[in-house]
Every structure is written in structure tokens, then in C-alpha cells.
Design goal:
The chain has 180 residues and is an alpha+beta fold. Helices cover 22% and strands 34% of the residues.
Length: 180
């Protein structure tokens, strides 16, 4: 995701201590991700608390709102709640090569940091892996179409796909059956 200028914080003029920043992340933010999953947009409020010291910027990002995405089951629009927190530490070390999950190195002459990627990461990590409507709330037309799809079953209860499995795995299946 390309850094968006509205998520840049210039820390060089800030005094040491805690500073609070608020961002409204709307449809334009989700469109900028370039990911099909987020093409329906959303509305998320992000609060960033930045604790600045001589050589460290410790940020705590809190996001809350919703993302609109297609349901994985029926493909109808789904309003997925978003709520999460993430901590990110930026070290002003002169070594921009420092990079791990929580610690990011910035060059010693850096005067600003862009949080677009970290805001997106916090939102993405707060979403469930599967995006589905609650039971009984999927699109009825899609439910009907899914109901018409049948899996061919063999007399032993396995699907036709399983019946065509690679014979090399048969020995492993017999071991599994012995354990049960």
C-alpha cells in the first residue's frame, strides 16, 4: 500500500512526551489499499498515541469502526466490525535497516513518519479470517444456488473427488484407520 500523505506525522518539532493524533479512515483509504477485499470501503476511526523520546517513538494505534466487504459465503455486502490495537516502535538510530515486527529503524536525520501501512495492518489484523453473515442472514438467492450444488457421494460416504485420490496415499489412510 502506498503511503498516504494525510497519515504522515512530523515528529521533529514535537516535545518529548505523549502526543495524540486522530485519523478518519473512510472509503478513500480502503480504495487506496488496492485490495479487492476492501473495495466496498468502510469507516474507521484511528487514534494514535505517540510517546516521543530522544531516540524512540513508541506508538500505540487503536482502530474502531467497520469495513464493508463481500460475504465469503454469499458474496453480498457485509458490514464487518473493526476494533483493535497495535504497538509500533520507531528507533531513530541512523540504521534504517532495523526491522522486525515491533521495532522499525529510522535514519537519524528523519523528521517524519508515515503510518498508512501500520494503520492498514492494525485494521487487517483485527478482522476475522472468514467474513460471513450471521446464520440465516445470507442472500436468499445465493443460498438457493448453493443448495442446488450437489457433491457426488460414493457408497462408502466419500466424495467422488476423494475416490480419485492418489493411490500412494492409501497406505497412510490404512495407518490412520488403525489408530481409530
Amino acid at each position: 500500500m502506498e503511503p498516504l500523505p494525510e497519515h504522515t506525522i512530523q515528529f521533529s518539532g514535537l516535545k518529548d512526551g505523549q502526543h495524540r493524533f486522530a485519523f478518519e479512515l473512510g472509503d478513500a483509504f480502503f480504495a487506496a489499499t488496492g485490495m479487492e477485499e476492501y473495495e466496498l470501503g468502510g469507516q474507521v476511526q484511528a487514534t494514535v498515541i505517540m510517546d516521543k523520546s530522544d531516540h524512540l517513538l513508541v506508538t500505540t494505534i487503536h482502530v474502531e469502526g467497520h469495513a464493508n466487504m463481500p460475504c465469503d459465503h454469499c458474496n453480498a455486502p457485509l458490514r464487518q466490525p473493526v476494533k483493535g490495537d497495535q504497538r509500533q516502535i520507531f528507533q531513530l538510530s541512523g540504521e534504517a535497516a532495523i526491522d522486525d515486527e515491533e521495532l522499525v529503524g529510522l535514519s537519524a536525520d528523519a523528521h517524519e513518519v508515515n503510518l498508512t501501512h501500520y494503520l492498514f495492518e492494525c485494521i487487517s489484523l483485527s478482522l476475522p479470517i472468514r467474513h460471513v453473515h450471521p446464520e440465516g442472514q445470507c442472500d436468499p438467492e445465493a443460498e438457493a444456488a448453493l443448495g442446488r450444488v450437489q457433491v457426488d457421494e460414493q457408497p462408502d460416504g466419500t466424495s467422488a473427488h476423494e475416490a480419485q485420490a492418489d493411490p500412494r496415499w492409501d497406505a497412510l489412510k490404512t495407518l490412520k484407520d488403525r489408530e481409530n
